[in-house]
Amino acid sequence: MSTPVVQSFRYIGKKRRTKEDPRFVTGHGRFVADIALPGMKHLALVTSPHAAARIRAIRTGHALALAGVHYVLTGAELCAATEPLLIGVDAPKVLRYPLAHEVVRYSGEWVAAVVADSRALAEDATEKIEVDYEPTEYVLDPEKAIEPGATLVHPLHGSNVLYRRKFVWGPVEEDFARAEHRLAFRVRWGRSATVPIETFGVAAQWDPGRQLLDVWASIQMPKYPDQTARALRLPGNAVRVHFDVDVGGSFGVKRGIKHTVLVGYLAKKLGMPVRLIEDRLENMRGGDMHGPDRIFDMQAAFDSDGTIRSLKIRALDDVGAYAGRSPLQLGKPVGAIIGPYQIHSVEYEPISVLTNKTAQEAVRGFGQSPTNYALESAIDHVAYHLGMDRIALRKKNFIRKDQFPYLIPSGTTYDSGDYHTVLDKALAAADYPALVAARDAARKAGRLAGIGIASCLEPSGANSSFEPLFNPKNDTTTWMDSCLVRVDLSGSITGVMNTSSAGQGHETLVATVLGEVLERDPDTIRVVHADSLTALPSNSPVGSRMAIMLGGAAAGAAQKIKAALLAIAAHNLKAELSGLVYRDGGVHLRGDPKRSLSWAQLVEIAQRKFHLLPPGLEPGLQAKFVWEVPTGGGLPTADGRIQMYPCFSFEAHVVLVEIDPATGQAKLLRYVCGHDCGVMISPDIVHGMTYGGIAHGIGAALYEKFAYSDNGQLESQSFMDYLIPSALEVPEIAIVDHCTPSPLTTFGQKGSGEAGYLGAPAAIAGAINDALAPLGASIAELPMTPLAIWTRIDAARAGLKRSTP
Amino acid sequence: MSEKLYPVSIEVNGERHEAQVTARLTLVDFLRDMLRLTGTHAGCEHGICGACSVLLDGEPVRSCLMYAVQTDGRSLTTIEGLAQPDGTPGALQDAFCETHATQCGYCTPGMIIAAHALLETNPAPGEQEIREAIGGNLCRCTGYQQIVDAIKLAAAKRAGSSM
Description:
Helix content of chain A is 28%, strand content 23%.
């Protein structure tokens, strides 16, 4: 299992160009804003200026009187004509529709939609719509929101708590009582998100003759076609989502179900194609794509030798005013709740809270990166408490490579790993002693410098085990993915995948895997995206799953093709299967290569010569494979133990920062990431996503925050306030690969779509706190903005001055 | 109420276009909606992200911050104009393919426009010069590393071919 098998591959793991890049570099991608349907109309939105208010009246006459304006839709009509959008937990009275009806619950919430000949005209018309609001009480602080008597965001729900449960896995109280030391602390993960450069967009067209709604969208969402049809009260086969739209980045957030229901409803009602492309303002405040916003109250129990016995984790998450799958982001971390460490027992209390803010949506890692930050903070706290080296403490508690498969207290079994080696490789690549010397030299010279270490897991191969865990009414246990492979009469191979892609290179993935199994050049293989009516069952590229699930499905389908070719050869060469050799797509007799059938001959028999086919073999040459998530299929135990994701990649970050004490600006001087995601199918793609994940992590750690004013106004609504790291903030990054194959997957691959992001914020936070430690200062909240850092420095120095006579 | 139209004559990728445009039509909308050159992307529409970058008389500009009427009589190059005549990637675009400098492809056109402008004025840029040149172009996928690699590769190939 642990023997690397990379050398035996022909295409997997090799430096190869991707299939997608040529269209993107020449400007020939096909994004949703590039879809121009004949007669298409455009939509713009009227949004609430209040955090909470009653809508007294909406006057649309002046808007409708403008030339080129076709319709103004309000919540009263839409809510009557559509079903509420689905919510991931059991909270049936927390209703959400695309437009507010009677009340608004956050500033930026959509109140009315205008359809006009152009986007500009639609925007003009929104300014002519008069809405009478009666402002009401609102609640912004999630801790106040759970207090008795708090203002309720959804009064019918009776509480602002969407989900709360205390899980106890193992003898937590006993372990705490027996431990030689205990400590408690609080850390806070700020409200940020992935904020792709392309906003969300959707275009829809109703065909009355076929009774069919065609949808083109910038989407990355499981069950999107089904949810769209359900909300629009249409049968599932009356909605056709075209998955061949290039998605301009998502990393989880492109879940525009409310946009789609709105646009789909209008397209059908008006009999006109309608398109909504969010502008950046709509995207930031009303796009419903804010990420986790969490307060972690952490307790650790440990011994003097550094053994960590137990953890208590309370995670309070502010999901904003509405919820889709966001509460479930507290559920996924259950599958890696002890990180890479041998921790005997855990108490975990997730609390999902409603406030009057923009709604939370899935963000890269689905809640794992905040949890990793809290776990790594705990490790650093324990090290500091004991005066122990942070690296030695991690190594002492790491699960050893001979302990896999390793069952953690919350019920998940980790597949494989070699955490000690990966961390050692990262430290060696960083030249850790030199890094320490550089930090210490900077400190001696009066500057602030620090080193951060983080060692984190990346759960991969997503299934949806958190659904039954967090919602007893939901017993979903499959989260399959599929691939269809066709070989045409010319012998060309086409792979059909069943979702859209948002830059993860799935066409390259499928072509590489098909080429590997069938021994055909991936450059000659075409990969297309089905639409939702021709697609096989699939669950979209979430949770670092596609290398495992789509890769596995493609391999399974290719193996069926190969088996068919071998059967045809055995029949025609009058040989036993065991006496045949498959090579480069042709088949020959073992020991007699001249008795052979070429790829072209075999394909021709399959496609045209029924009389030469073995009995029982279908004519034509195509195969489908539907794959269930390995280890998936189970329901939770009564105490909430469940196998979450199947495969666990690992990343070890080592970072050196220096802080400018005059400005609080942190500069990353050295960044090394040791990474083990098993067998890499396309190393360039894996490395690219890892670099990008680290850059995103730098943003979450240092810059990015959806900040709210005391009156509930979103203060970061543009890229001038919401700061995305540029090439000047992101340093050169060194990735050090290691390969511990997964025993659960076709080629030993694990997932890596969330790589880098799952450890970077923890590592950078550790480095900032190491830099501030000589001042006796620290920060326990992300993002650690220049102002936040400067404030701590200033306060520490003022304190030092006061205490010095 | 119909908006007043203004005649413009703009050269785009070597081809002259005569059009009637409203005063408030942005350059990015003109390129995308009127000329259907959809390689230029709108990302933030307030001049920060750089996805909409095009070359105006050889200089990179934000097409979301300009009006089409401002480019009357001038010459533009978009991402489509940097390809080979048959539509396959030009040299710089090919370097982006070689290092896998794109993921979702949305920021890519603006990034290549910025890189092209850099290499035109500085054929052998250092790492920091490259990072400064693309510092006004945001990418959410790549962490910039393979983009920097691509620009270095393109510079090296240019130097090699001119020897």
